[in-house]
Design brief:
Shape: globular
Mean pLDDT: 82
Strand content: over 45%
Strand order of the largest sheet: 1-2-3-4-5-8-9-10-11-12-13-14-15-16
Number of helices: 3
Number of domains: 1
Order of helices and strands: HHEEEEEEEEEEEEEEEHE
Largest sheet: 14 strands, antiparallel, barrel
């Protein structure tokens, strides 16, 4: 029990610069506006999308585990007004909360992107996210390293830290680019690069006199994605995601497969497996009916932490609804990938 207490303290110390747990969904491809704002409106076969994701992490180790929620939506604009492209507009809300101190981060962004067709086979996109971030912590529930008494083996009272505030707000800006190449009506690939916290906002619970970092570092996200359709029965979707911030990085790669279960493609079975480098193996299953898709995964811990959490990392679920609101005059400008 004492060991788990020490681990909890260590995790809280990792978040002392108020960065909290940044974007950390295994199904990153189902949080498109957070990964890259250039994905806003990048939905050639539908007019709009709405989606949500929920993640619960380390529930068997922490009394208050990481719980992360994302809600988002986007739509195409000017699809019949701009000959060589279209615009996308959307919004996303992200909330993360964890730890004994109820450390929470709530982010809300408006997203805009423009998608330009270069001929019949290439698409170049540029997008922006702009919004506000709120972070809160209950300092009375925190225990810091300097409270540990080596002589008595107990924790002393008083946090001994220069906490200046427990509630902060700041403006945040993201930018991203995306390139897609359509080989034919059965295959395409796309790749994207984005930068979060481009304005490096000031965000700290600590007083400036403490000398602790006051800036949120820029975070870079890169993804590579491909789709290949086989005889109107299968769609193969290998993909990879790399994120880097302040010397730390995360790499996730794998594949999911969609199997057509009906003549018209309205029902699909989804299965996949992913690997987060030095952390977890991630099996995923899902089902799509008409334009509604549901997927769920479980992170099986493979790092040294598996000895403490019994391989139990996290579970995650996503739901996405896609739809068409301009039937009969959509003006599709690039190939689509659907059954």
């Amino acid at each position: 029990m004492r060991l788990l207490t020490y681990i909890s303290i260590f995790i809280l110390l990792l978040t002392r610069d108020a960065a909290a747990q940044q974007l950390h969904f295994s199904q990153y491809f189902n949080t498109p506006l957070l990964v890259n704002p250039a994905n806003t409106g990048f939905n050639p076969d539908y007019d709009y999308r709405i989606g949500g994701s929920y993640r619960n992490q380390w529930a068997n180790m922490l009394s208050n585990p990481y719980q992360t929620t994302n809600l988002w939506g986007d739509a195409q604009l000017f699809i019949n007004k701009i000959e060589s492209g279209w615009a996308g507009i959307g919004g996303t809300i992200y909330k993360d909360q964890a730890g004994t101190g109820n450390l929470s981060t709530t982010q809300g962004y408006l997203s805009f992107a423009y998608h330009h067709m270069a001929g019949n086979s290439s698409l170049l996109s540029l997008g922006f996210n702009a919004g506000m971030v709120n972070q809160q912590v209950d300092a009375s529930k925190l225990i810091f390293d300097n409270q540990w008494n080596n002589t008595s083996g107990q924790f002393n009272g008083g946090i001994g830290e220069s906490l200046d505030k427990t509630n902060i707000n700041y403006f945040d800006l993201h930018v991203g680019v995306n390139y897609a190449y359509f080989l034919n009506d059965r295959a395409y690939f796309n790749l994207g690069l984005s930068a979060e916290h481009l304005n490096t906002p000031t965000a700290s619970f600590f007083a400036a006199s403490s000398g602790l970092s006051q800036k949120v570092p820029v975070r870079y996200n890169f993804f590579l994605n491909a789709n290949y359709k086989i005889e109107d029965l299968w769609i193969l979707n290998p993909n990879m995601y790399i994120s880097e911030s302040n010397g730390s990085n995360e790499v996730v790669l794998g594949i999911n497969v969609m199997r057509n279960l009906s003549d018209d493609g309205t029902k699909q079975l989804i299965a996949g497996v992913y690997y987060r480098n030095k952390d977890a193996i991630i099996p995923m299953v899902g089902y799509q009916t008409n334009d509604l898709m549901f997927t769920v995964n479980y992170d099986i811990t493979t790092s040294a932490l598996s000895k403490l959490n019994g391989l139990q990392g996290a579970y995650e679920a996503s739901i996405i609804k896609r739809a068409i609101y301009m039937k009969g005059h959509r003006g599709i400008k690039c190939p689509v990938m659907k059954f």
